Amino acid sequence: MLIREVAPGVWVSTSRTMQTNSIVLAGESEALLIDPAWHDDELDAIADFLRERELRVVGGFATHAHHDHLLWSDRFGAVPRWASEATARVAQAERPALLASLGEDASERTRSLLGCVAPTSSLTAGMLPPGVIAELIVHDAHAPGHTAVWLPRQRVLIAGDMLSDVELPLPFDPDDVPSYLRGLARLEPYAHQAAVLIPGHGSVDTDARARHEADRRYLLDVITRGMSGDARIASPGMAEEYARLQRLVREGPPRDELT
Protein backbone atom coordinates (compact mmCIF):
# COMPACT_ATOMS: atom_id res chain seq x y z
CA MET A 1 0.00 0.00 0.00
CA LEU A 2 1.38 3.39 -1.01
CA ILE A 3 2.00 5.85 1.82
CA ARG A 4 2.72 9.30 0.46
CA GLU A 5 3.83 12.56 2.03
CA VAL A 6 1.28 15.29 1.19
CA ALA A 7 2.89 18.03 3.32
CA PRO A 8 5.99 18.14 5.52
CA GLY A 9 5.57 15.43 8.15
CA VAL A 10 2.05 14.52 6.97
CA TRP A 11 1.72 11.08 5.39
CA VAL A 12 -1.44 9.50 3.96
CA SER A 13 -2.32 5.93 3.04
CA THR A 14 -5.58 5.06 1.27
CA SER A 15 -7.46 1.83 1.88
CA ARG A 16 -8.89 -0.32 -0.90
CA THR A 17 -12.24 -0.03 0.91
CA MET A 18 -14.17 3.22 0.38
CA GLN A 19 -10.94 5.12 -0.32
CA THR A 20 -10.52 5.54 3.44
CA ASN A 21 -7.56 7.72 4.36
CA SER A 22 -5.20 7.03 7.27
CA ILE A 23 -2.94 9.86 8.41
CA VAL A 24 0.48 9.76 10.06
CA LEU A 25 1.66 13.00 11.70
CA ALA A 26 5.39 12.51 12.00
CA GLY A 27 8.01 14.33 13.99
CA GLU A 28 11.68 13.43 13.98
CA SER A 29 11.27 10.15 15.84
CA GLU A 30 7.61 9.98 16.93
CA ALA A 31 4.20 9.89 15.26
CA LEU A 32 0.51 10.40 15.97
CA LEU A 33 -1.96 8.35 13.93
CA ILE A 34 -5.34 9.71 12.84
CA ASP A 35 -8.08 7.26 11.77
CA PRO A 36 -5.79 4.34 10.81
CA ALA A 37 -7.74 1.89 8.61
CA TRP A 38 -8.92 -0.55 7.41
CA HIS A 39 -7.83 -4.17 6.91
CA ASP A 40 -5.17 -6.05 8.85
CA ASP A 41 -2.74 -6.02 5.93
CA GLU A 42 -3.24 -2.27 5.49
CA LEU A 43 -2.70 -1.61 9.19
CA ASP A 44 0.39 -3.82 9.00
CA ALA A 45 1.65 -1.74 6.07
CA ILE A 46 1.36 1.39 8.19
CA ALA A 47 3.20 -0.37 11.03
CA ASP A 48 5.94 -1.45 8.60
CA PHE A 49 6.26 2.13 7.33
CA LEU A 50 6.64 3.40 10.90
CA ARG A 51 9.26 0.77 11.70
CA GLU A 52 11.25 1.50 8.55
CA ARG A 53 11.33 5.20 9.39
CA GLU A 54 12.07 4.47 13.06
CA LEU A 55 8.95 6.36 14.17
CA ARG A 56 7.51 5.47 17.57
CA VAL A 57 3.73 5.92 17.89
CA VAL A 58 2.87 8.22 20.81
CA GLY A 59 -0.90 8.24 20.35
CA GLY A 60 -3.91 8.03 18.10
CA PHE A 61 -6.90 10.22 17.32
CA ALA A 62 -10.33 9.29 15.94
CA THR A 63 -12.29 11.96 14.10
CA HIS A 64 -15.69 10.44 14.87
CA ALA A 65 -17.49 7.36 16.17
CA HIS A 66 -18.05 5.37 13.00
CA HIS A 67 -16.46 1.93 12.88
CA ASP A 68 -14.05 2.69 10.05
CA HIS A 69 -12.53 5.59 12.00
CA LEU A 70 -12.10 3.80 15.33
CA LEU A 71 -9.64 1.11 14.23
CA TRP A 72 -6.21 0.26 15.60
CA SER A 73 -3.46 -2.35 15.43
CA ASP A 74 -1.57 -3.98 18.28
CA ARG A 75 1.57 -3.25 16.27
CA PHE A 76 1.12 0.48 16.92
CA GLY A 77 1.58 -0.14 20.64
CA ALA A 78 -0.49 0.29 23.78
CA VAL A 79 -0.51 4.08 23.63
CA PRO A 80 -3.27 6.59 24.43
CA ARG A 81 -5.98 7.08 21.83
CA TRP A 82 -8.20 10.13 21.94
CA ALA A 83 -11.35 11.60 20.45
CA SER A 84 -13.76 14.41 21.23
CA GLU A 85 -15.91 13.96 24.32
CA ALA A 86 -19.03 13.13 22.28
CA THR A 87 -17.12 10.70 20.05
CA ALA A 88 -15.67 8.86 23.04
CA ARG A 89 -19.09 8.65 24.65
CA VAL A 90 -20.74 7.24 21.51
CA ALA A 91 -17.85 4.82 20.91
CA GLN A 92 -18.39 3.32 24.35
CA ALA A 93 -22.20 3.36 24.37
CA GLU A 94 -22.60 1.93 20.86
CA ARG A 95 -19.70 -0.52 20.80
CA PRO A 96 -21.88 -3.59 19.96
CA ALA A 97 -23.41 -1.80 16.96
CA LEU A 98 -20.00 -0.57 15.83
CA LEU A 99 -18.61 -4.11 15.98
CA ALA A 100 -21.57 -5.32 13.95
CA SER A 101 -20.87 -2.64 11.35
CA LEU A 102 -17.26 -3.80 11.15
CA GLY A 103 -18.47 -7.14 9.86
CA GLU A 104 -17.64 -10.76 10.54
CA ASP A 105 -14.59 -10.77 8.28
CA ALA A 106 -12.66 -8.49 10.64
CA SER A 107 -10.08 -10.32 12.71
CA GLU A 108 -10.38 -10.67 16.47
CA ARG A 109 -7.15 -8.69 16.66
CA THR A 110 -8.92 -5.73 15.04
CA ARG A 111 -12.24 -6.17 16.83
CA SER A 112 -10.66 -6.16 20.28
CA LEU A 113 -9.14 -2.71 19.75
CA LEU A 114 -12.12 -1.01 18.10
CA GLY A 115 -13.13 2.29 19.65
CA CYS A 116 -10.84 2.32 22.71
CA VAL A 117 -10.63 6.11 22.87
CA ALA A 118 -10.53 8.58 25.74
CA PRO A 119 -12.13 12.03 25.61
CA THR A 120 -10.09 15.17 25.06
CA SER A 121 -10.88 18.76 24.08
CA SER A 122 -7.43 19.44 22.61
CA LEU A 123 -4.17 17.87 21.49
CA THR A 124 -1.55 19.42 23.72
CA ALA A 125 2.21 19.44 23.18
CA GLY A 126 2.61 16.46 25.50
CA MET A 127 0.22 14.39 23.37
CA LEU A 128 1.93 15.13 20.05
CA PRO A 129 5.34 14.42 18.54
CA PRO A 130 7.76 17.29 19.26
CA GLY A 131 7.34 20.05 16.72
CA VAL A 132 3.82 19.05 15.67
CA ILE A 133 1.00 21.53 16.32
CA ALA A 134 -2.61 20.45 15.82
CA GLU A 135 -5.90 22.22 16.53
CA LEU A 136 -9.19 20.35 16.95
CA ILE A 137 -12.33 21.69 15.25
CA VAL A 138 -15.31 20.00 16.92
CA HIS A 139 -18.90 20.18 15.61
CA ASP A 140 -21.91 17.91 15.12
CA ALA A 141 -22.06 17.53 11.35
CA HIS A 142 -22.09 13.89 10.18
CA ALA A 143 -21.80 12.56 13.76
CA PRO A 144 -21.90 13.89 17.33
CA GLY A 145 -18.56 15.45 18.18
CA HIS A 146 -17.20 15.02 14.66
CA THR A 147 -13.72 16.54 14.65
CA ALA A 148 -11.51 18.00 11.98
CA VAL A 149 -7.81 18.55 12.67
CA TRP A 150 -6.04 21.73 11.55
CA LEU A 151 -2.26 21.79 11.17
CA PRO A 152 -1.40 25.51 11.10
CA ARG A 153 2.27 25.15 10.22
CA GLN A 154 1.58 23.10 7.10
CA ARG A 155 -1.89 24.60 6.48
CA VAL A 156 -3.36 21.12 6.27
CA LEU A 157 -7.04 20.45 7.00
CA ILE A 158 -7.84 16.86 8.00
CA ALA A 159 -11.59 16.99 7.51
CA GLY A 160 -12.90 13.63 8.71
CA ASP A 161 -15.94 12.52 6.72
CA MET A 162 -16.57 15.88 5.05
CA LEU A 163 -15.31 17.77 1.98
CA SER A 164 -14.93 14.57 -0.04
CA ASP A 165 -14.84 14.25 -3.81
CA VAL A 166 -16.52 10.81 -3.68
CA GLU A 167 -19.03 11.18 -0.83
CA LEU A 168 -21.92 13.59 -0.55
CA PRO A 169 -22.53 15.46 2.71
CA LEU A 170 -24.02 12.81 5.01
CA PRO A 171 -25.99 14.21 7.96
CA PHE A 172 -25.84 11.05 10.08
CA ASP A 173 -26.50 10.75 13.81
CA PRO A 174 -28.40 12.97 14.30
CA ASP A 175 -30.30 13.43 11.03
CA ASP A 176 -29.93 17.15 11.45
CA VAL A 177 -29.40 19.24 8.33
CA PRO A 178 -29.00 22.58 10.21
CA SER A 179 -26.24 20.99 12.32
CA TYR A 180 -24.46 19.96 9.14
CA LEU A 181 -24.64 23.51 7.80
CA ARG A 182 -23.29 24.80 11.12
CA GLY A 183 -20.45 22.28 10.87
CA LEU A 184 -19.60 23.57 7.40
CA ALA A 185 -19.60 27.10 8.79
CA ARG A 186 -17.09 26.00 11.45
CA LEU A 187 -14.82 24.59 8.75
CA GLU A 188 -15.12 27.51 6.35
CA PRO A 189 -12.25 29.71 7.62
CA TYR A 190 -9.91 26.70 7.68
CA ALA A 191 -10.97 25.60 4.19
CA HIS A 192 -10.14 29.09 2.95
CA GLN A 193 -6.66 28.95 4.49
CA ALA A 194 -5.79 25.34 3.69
CA ALA A 195 -3.02 24.44 1.26
CA VAL A 196 -3.88 20.73 1.52
CA LEU A 197 -7.16 18.98 2.30
CA ILE A 198 -7.33 15.37 3.49
CA PRO A 199 -10.88 13.97 3.57
CA GLY A 200 -11.81 10.80 5.40
CA HIS A 201 -12.67 9.19 2.08
CA GLY A 202 -11.51 10.19 -1.38
CA SER A 203 -8.71 12.22 -2.91
CA VAL A 204 -6.30 14.57 -1.19
CA ASP A 205 -6.74 18.03 -2.75
CA THR A 206 -5.21 21.49 -2.78
CA ASP A 207 -8.53 23.35 -3.17
CA ALA A 208 -10.40 22.91 0.08
CA ARG A 209 -12.42 26.05 -0.62
CA ALA A 210 -13.96 24.47 -3.74
CA ARG A 211 -14.77 21.25 -1.85
CA HIS A 212 -16.39 23.29 0.93
CA GLU A 213 -18.50 25.26 -1.54
CA ALA A 214 -19.57 22.05 -3.31
CA ASP A 215 -20.84 20.58 -0.02
CA ARG A 216 -22.69 23.75 0.89
CA ARG A 217 -24.19 24.13 -2.60
CA TYR A 218 -25.42 20.53 -2.59
CA LEU A 219 -27.25 20.95 0.71
CA LEU A 220 -28.75 24.32 -0.20
CA ASP A 221 -29.89 23.04 -3.59
CA VAL A 222 -31.78 20.17 -1.97
CA ILE A 223 -33.19 22.48 0.71
CA THR A 224 -34.34 25.23 -1.65
CA ARG A 225 -35.12 23.29 -4.86
CA GLY A 226 -35.57 19.72 -3.68
CA MET A 227 -32.90 18.47 -6.06
CA SER A 228 -29.21 18.69 -6.95
CA GLY A 229 -27.03 18.02 -9.97
CA ASP A 230 -23.96 17.12 -7.88
CA ALA A 231 -21.78 14.63 -9.76
CA ARG A 232 -21.10 12.68 -6.57
CA ILE A 233 -24.65 11.32 -6.66
CA ALA A 234 -23.31 8.80 -9.18
CA SER A 235 -20.69 7.48 -6.73
CA PRO A 236 -21.35 4.05 -5.17
CA GLY A 237 -24.03 4.26 -2.49
CA MET A 238 -24.63 7.99 -2.93
CA ALA A 239 -27.92 7.83 -4.87
CA GLU A 240 -29.50 6.29 -1.76
CA GLU A 241 -28.01 9.03 0.41
CA TYR A 242 -29.28 11.70 -1.99
CA ALA A 243 -32.80 10.25 -1.72
CA ARG A 244 -32.40 10.11 2.05
CA LEU A 245 -31.53 13.80 2.24
CA GLN A 246 -34.48 14.69 0.03
CA ARG A 247 -36.73 12.78 2.41
CA LEU A 248 -35.21 14.50 5.47
CA VAL A 249 -35.86 17.89 3.92
CA ARG A 250 -39.43 17.00 2.89
CA GLU A 251 -40.34 15.59 6.29
CA GLY A 252 -38.37 18.06 8.41
CA PRO A 253 -39.02 21.64 9.52
CA PRO A 254 -39.99 24.35 7.01
CA ARG A 255 -37.23 25.02 4.52
CA ASP A 256 -36.68 28.60 5.68
CA GLU A 257 -35.84 27.19 9.13
CA LEU A 258 -33.17 24.86 7.72
CA THR A 259 -30.87 27.71 6.67
Descriptive account of the structure:
The structure is a single chain. The protein has 259 residues and is an alpha/beta fold. It folds into two domains: 120 residues, Ribonuclease Z/Hydroxyacylglutathione hydrolase-like (Metallo-beta-lactamase, Chain A, 4-Layer Sandwich); 119 residues, no CATH class. It contains eight helices and eleven strands. The strands form two sheets. The chain has a seven-stranded mixed β-sheet with strand order 1-2-3-4-5-6-7, with helices on one face. A four-stranded mixed β-sheet has the order 8-9-10-11, with helices on one face. The protein is globular and about 55 Å long. The termini are far apart.
Supply the key terms.
259 residues, single chain, seven-stranded mixed sheet, globular, alpha/beta, Metallo-beta-lactamase, Chain A
**Total of domains:** 2
Strand content: 15-25%
CATH superfamily of the largest domain: Ribonuclease Z/Hydroxyacylglutathione hydrolase-like
Q: Tell me the radius of gyration.
A: 18 Å
Q: Please write the string of helix (H) and strand (E) elements.
A: EEEEHEEHHHEEEEHEHHH
The profile of the biggest β sheet is: 7 strands, mixed
The share of residues in helices is 25-40%
Number of helices: 8
**Strand numbers in spatial order across the main sheet:** 1-2-3-4-5-6-7
- Low-confidence parts lasting 5 or more residues at pLDDT below 50? none
CATH class of the largest domain: Alpha Beta
Give me the oligomer status. single chain
Nearest-integer average pLDDT: 93
CATH architecture of the largest domain: 4-Layer Sandwich
Structural class comes to: alpha/beta
